[in-house]
Amino acid sequence: MIILFFISLITFVNSLSLKQVLLAIDCGGQESFNSKEGYLYQDDQYFSGDSRVSDYTYNDVVYAGIAYTFTPRVYFTERHGNSFDYSIPIIKDGQYTIILQFVELYFENEGDRQFDVFIGTNRILHNFSIIDNKHQKGYAKEVFIYIEIKDDKVFYNDQECSKGFVNGKLKIGFRKGAADLPKVDGIVIVKGHNAGEEEKNYLIDNWEQMLEENRKKEAELQRAELEAQNMIVPDQVEQDEGEGLFSFLLSPIGIGIIVFGMSVFGLLIFTGENEEQKNKNKKKNKSK
Ligand SMILES: *[C@@H]1O[C@H](CO)[C@@H](O)[C@H](O)[C@H]1NC(C)=O
Questions:
Q1: What are the record keywords, sorted (predicted)?
Q2: 138 CB less than 6 Å from ligand 1?
Q3: Which atom of ligand 1 is nearest to the CA of 126?
């Protein structure tokens, strides 16, 4: 169980490696920074149209913590407006995944904000609400859009998105829908179609556990740093659970328990065989 959990954690952390991520934009952001997975978010660029930036860095919801992400900073700033586009340069033909990153920090209910997202003239999201049954206010939401770029054209679900790829630039449009204004927090372009959607769903379904595990890791890193600076002596470092269990099993008491357990198991098998033998003997006696 524990091992399975660690494997999923590792695949999650490795899911978006530096190589796969072609480009990441922190919409509304002023400075570039590194994501938890180690790829670079560029400051906001490639946008056009009627839009503005909002910075929620000192907002209560942000202060309480953005759920479902280990790179909350992406969600501190946003771009919103009546109608705006991002024109993102992509040089090579191939399969790509667009990850659109959103968080609702203003409205409370599903449907309070509903907008459309386009690639060229094709509508990909229709009356899209960031808040849904799994995402409340303050919960990071990612939408994975799988595309292919071929011969100066972009395809979504095998259909060409007209005007979606112009002069080597992928055109993503945000338009008003049924309620309020469209907004976006981050755009990540990943090479290929294996962009970590399953890992993301795992993270959402196991969020509390993942959060706790992340806290432990951070604390360990901090401790290691302090140790390196000779701030604390290694002896004071408490053992982590896994190591504790392992050394317990190797201790005299642990070995005693294992040996005892094995002998009880052996005894059970032995008596079981005895019963069988008795039954057989009974049958034999009867047939005589
Ligand atoms: C989206 O909202 C508009 C405006 O309320 C409405 O006319 C349209 O039917 C809605 N479309 C979908 C697919 O929900």
A1: Carbohydrate metabolism, Endoplasmic reticulum, Glycoprotein, Membrane, Signal, Transmembrane, Transmembrane helix
A2: no
A3: 13
CB 28 within 8 A of CB 50: no
Q: How far apart are CA 8 and CA 237, in angstroms?
A: 27
C-alpha span between 98 and 146 (Å, rounded): 6
Amino acid identity of residue 225, one-letter, is: E
What are the residues facing 179 on neighbouring strands? 114
In 31-113, beta strands by DSSP E:
33-34, 40-41, 47-55, 77-89, 94-102
| Residue entry with tokens 């032995």 | 270
CA 126 to chain centre: 24
C-alpha 127 – ligand 1 centre gap (Å)? 6
pTM for the structure as a whole: 0.76
Asked if residue 264 has pLDDT above 90, the reply is no
Structure token digits, residue 1: 């169980």
208: CB partners within 8 A, 6+ apart: none
Between CA 105 and CA 217, with CA 103 as vertex, the angle to 5 degrees is 110
SS3 129: coil
Q: What is the pLDDT of residues 2-50, one digit of tens each?
A: 555 555 555 555 567 777 999 999 999 999 999 999 999 999 999 999 9
Distance between CA 3 and CA 198 in Å, rounded? 19
Residue type, 29: G
The pair of structure tokens assigned to 23 is 């480009």
| Helix %, strand %, coil % of the chain (to 5) | 35, 35, 30
Q: Which atom of ligand 1 is nearest to the CA of 179?
A: 5
Work out the number of other CB atoms within 10 angstroms of the CB of residue 251. Answer: 11
